[in-house]
């Protein structure tokens, strides 16, 4: 069996690009393994692949392989077997891919739903506005990475985080399908700006509604007020960072959009009955 291995440099924090699958010279068109990428031991970093054109098969040797179409993505954690190939009905395909070592603030958005195959899969087909935002983020991520800017990798990594935040909006536990379109757009805006100062008025203005009208529609759809939702998202981010890193509480407070470490600790305790430090200690003990 012939297979390909996409080169990467483990020492780098990030590698991104567009991949195009085409027939290889001397390869039979009916070969079940044509245009296949196989890494039996995975890679030491995280790997995300977003399908842009064509269709791809994930884990083709599995009893029930999964076919990915445009508007779908697969995420591999470190050292997980990576196995994908272009669907035999397509002559070519195109993907956005990234190999990366995540920043602490990315961790909450890497908690994708588990699948029986191993890698996690999320789809957003049917969400036209979200799809445009995701495609735009892919373009900017590659553009920054390939630029001559002094901090090109840092800029690209920031856009990759934005991309992960956008995709996370269609996590099965956070579906947009049943929502008023204006509320769905607001959730995407919040995800993109979670670390910035937010208010019901600023969010409402971003989607063209008055603060009172927006707050009413949001509460009907989400069973909570917009700022209560924002705080829940920030607390959720903080819990993931506390459990998965040794970053100072003050740093986590800032990264999660809280105005001060004191206010963060106060709100965290109110929501979790534990201080951030106590929560971290308990999470680490459970992980031992």
Structure in words:
The protein has helices at 128-146, 152-168, 181-192, 200-206, 211-222, 226-244, 249-255, 261-272, 276-287; strands at residues 14-21, 36-39, 46-53, 56-58, 66-68, 72-76, 82-86, 93-100, 120-123. The chain is α+β, with helices and mostly antiparallel strands.
Through-space gap between termini: 41 Å
Strand numbers in spatial order across the main sheet = 1-8-3-6-9
Strand-residue proportion:
15-25%
Order of helices and strands: EEEEEEEEEHHHHHHHHH
Helix content: 40-55%
Low-pLDDT residue intervals, each spanning 5 or more residues: 1-11
**Integer average pLDDT:** 82
Q: How many DSSP H or I helices?
A: 9
Radius of gyration based on Cα positions:
21 Å
User: Quick one: overall form?
Assistant: globular
Beta strands, count: 9
Entry summary:
The protein has 288 residues and is α+β, with helices and mostly antiparallel strands. It is 41% helix and 17% strand.
């Amino acid at each position: 069996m012939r297979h390909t291995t996409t080169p990467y440099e483990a020492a780098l924090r990030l590698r991104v690009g567009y991949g195009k699958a085409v027939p290889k010279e001397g390869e039979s068109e009916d070969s079940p393994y044509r245009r296949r990428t196989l890494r039996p031991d995975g890679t030491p970093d995280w790997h995300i692949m977003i399908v842009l054109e064509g269709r791809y098969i994930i884990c083709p040797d599995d009893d029930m392989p999964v076919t990915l179409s445009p508007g779908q993505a697969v995420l591999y954690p470190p050292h997980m077997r990576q196995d994908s190939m272009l669907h035999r009905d397509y002559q070519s395909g195109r993907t956005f891919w990234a190999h990366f070592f995540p920043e602490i603030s990315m961790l909450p958005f890497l908690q994708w739903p588990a699948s029986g195959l191993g890698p996690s899969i999320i789809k957003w087909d049917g969400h036209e506005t979200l799809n445009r935002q995701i495609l735009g983020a892919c373009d900017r991520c590659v553009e920054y990475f390939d630029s001559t800017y002094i901090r090109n990798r840092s800029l690209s990594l920031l856009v990759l985080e934005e991309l992960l935040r956008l995709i996370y909006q269609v996590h099965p536990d956070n579906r947009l399908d049943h929502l008023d379109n204006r509320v769905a757009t607001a959730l995407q805006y919040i995800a993109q700006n979670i670390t910035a100062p937010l208010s019901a008025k600023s969010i409402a203005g971003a989607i063209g509604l008055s603060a009172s009208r927006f707050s009413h529609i949001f509460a009907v759809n989400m069973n909570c007020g917009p700022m209560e939702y924002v705080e829940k998202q920030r607390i959720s981010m903080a819990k993931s960072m506390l459990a998965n890193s040794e970053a100072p509480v003050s740093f986590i407070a800032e990264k999660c959009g809280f105005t001060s470490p004191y206010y963060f600790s106060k709100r965290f305790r109110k929501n979790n009955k534990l201080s951030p430090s106590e929560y971290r200690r308990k999470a680490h003990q459970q992980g031992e």
